[in-house]
Inverse folding.
């Protein structure tokens, strides 16, 4: 069996970041917060782009400092495209675990396919309710980190509310159930965080490139891609610029030409 | 599990006005975890649907805010804004005169010694019954005095500014009344009314955590 080097690298990156976030429970100041908003080395703030948009809309004000927190993220994913989903988001690993329990290729509900349905809906709701509802209440990423912290605080007898802990875990459980019923429905069609980064796929330096080699049309790449990206036939395309592509490299690994046709490439 | 909405929270220092704060805070937990990493553990996450996941200082008896001013410096959305300690307005501490040792014939002053801003916050009413402490409206609401009060359930409580405004007049008139008592009545007030209460409060070991 060929060594799945991208999958291995992805898991290492994901687990290192997750581990650094875990260390904050033991008073490490390397990474503090969660992937929605964080503090690196007690020095620089990072802020998720959709959370920034939502917070700005719901508070109806543009905070320059909040923009400064979002700016490093903006620049990084302008270079890396939607790599956040494939390489950093802990839900990718969690959902993969759920996917393994049940192999299913059920069709996703058609009404969810609108590209802007969920992001626009959440932004409008945030502006009307004046709460950044997705980022603070719904987001599986926020709830993931919140339930870790809240569980730790609860176990240590530190101040906290048991209702916050249980509701966070319930919401997370809801996402696992959704994943069980419709694999990757959330990631493909709904997740506003991922869709925001997906916009950068058109410009990103990091991408999957298609070379001019003869394709055997074995369809292995299509089977390996769980984001439903149309990879081949190429139609003369040389790059995959689909906004669903999370640049995970599974298609590159699966390709029966051993990486002659599909290549991970960094550069314009 | 409590799902009913509360309006009143003691927010971390430098927080925007309540509505604006709620609209800006994304519940990223940076303040919460930073407070934990700095070994203060003052912040908790609020429940209820409008305040879900927003930080507040829950348990001042054990984990008061120490006004280290680190969380407002590093709030990613700037829902907490960096301000100087003098401009912090988290809440307002009120001393319960019927429980306070300083108002009942003892010299205690633990609260004024615990206060990070000391003399600018405390007024004293020296009299036959000792150096009676009183907290003025420069109070930041950090709650360090609550923690260091030696009375079992703490004679001090921190209120939000909103509920302080409602109780202000009653409280002021209560203070005036105690100061105006003649010696016999004051003796009766201390020994018959308050002492049993203070002794009873001394037996309370239960803290506010969770």
């Amino acid at each position: 069996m060929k060594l799945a080097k991208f999958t291995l690298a992805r898991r290492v990156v994901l687990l290192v970041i997750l581990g650094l976030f875990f260390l904050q429970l033991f008073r490490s100041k390397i990474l503090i917060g969660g992937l929605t908003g964080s503090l690196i080395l007690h020095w620089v703030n990072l802020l998720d782009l959709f959370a920034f948009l939502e917070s700005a809309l719901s508070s109806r004000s543009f905070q320059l400092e909040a923009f400064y927190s979002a700016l490093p993220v903006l620049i990084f994913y302008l270079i890396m495209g939607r790599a956040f989903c494939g390489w950093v988001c802990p839900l990718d690993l969690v959902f993969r675990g759920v996917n393994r329990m049940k192999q299913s290729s059920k069709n996703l509900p058609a009404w969810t396919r609108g590209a802007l349905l969920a992001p626009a809906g959440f932004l409008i709701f945030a502006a009307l309710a004046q709460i950044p509802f997705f980022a603070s209440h719904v987001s599986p990423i926020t709830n993931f980190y919140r339930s870790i912290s809240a569980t730790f605080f609860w176990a240590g007898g530190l101040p906290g509310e048991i209702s916050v802990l249980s509701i966070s875990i319930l919401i997370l459980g809801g996402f696992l159930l959704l994943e069980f019923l419709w694999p990757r429905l959330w990631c493909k069609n709904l997740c506003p965080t991922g869709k925001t980064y997906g916009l950068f796929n058109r410009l990103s330096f990091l991408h999957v490139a298609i070379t001019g080699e003869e394709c055997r049309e074995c369809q292995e790449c299509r089977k390996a891609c769980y984001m439903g990206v149309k990879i081949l036939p190429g139609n003369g395309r040389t790059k995959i610029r689909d906004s669903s592509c999370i640049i995970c490299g599974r298609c590159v690994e699966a390709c029966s030409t051993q990486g002659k046709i599909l290549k991970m490439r960094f550069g314009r | 599990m409590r799902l009913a909405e509360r309006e009143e929270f003691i927010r971390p220092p430098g927080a925007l006005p309540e509505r604006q704060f709620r609209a800006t805070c994304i519940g990223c937990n940076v303040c919460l975890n930073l407070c934990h990493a700095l070994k203060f553990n003052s912040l908790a996450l609020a429940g209820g649907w409008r305040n879900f996941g927003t930080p507040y200082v829950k348990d001042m008896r054990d984990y008061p805010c120490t006004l280290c001013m680190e969380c407002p410096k590093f709030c990613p959305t700037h829902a907490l804004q960096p301000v100087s300690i003098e401009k912090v307005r988290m809440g307002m501490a009120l001393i319960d005169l019927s429980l306070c040792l300083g108002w009942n014939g003892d010299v205690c002053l633990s609260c004024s010694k615990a206060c990070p801003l000391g003399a600018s916050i405390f007024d004293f009413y020296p009299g036959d019954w000792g150096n009676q402490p009183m907290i003025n409206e420069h109070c930041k609401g950090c709650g360090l005095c609550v923690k260091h009060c030696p009375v079992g359930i703490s004679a001090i409580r921190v209120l939000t500014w909103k509920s302080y405004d409602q109780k202000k007049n009653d409280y002021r008139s209560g203070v005036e009344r105690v100061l105006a008592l003649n010696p016999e009545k004051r003796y009766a007030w201390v020994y018959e009314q308050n002492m049993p209460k203070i002794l009873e409060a001394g037996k309370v070991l239960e803290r506010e955590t969770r």
Observations:
- Chain B touches chain A through 45 residues (CB under 8 Å).
- The beta strands of chain B are 43-45, 55-57, 92-95, 122-127, 130-135, 156-159.
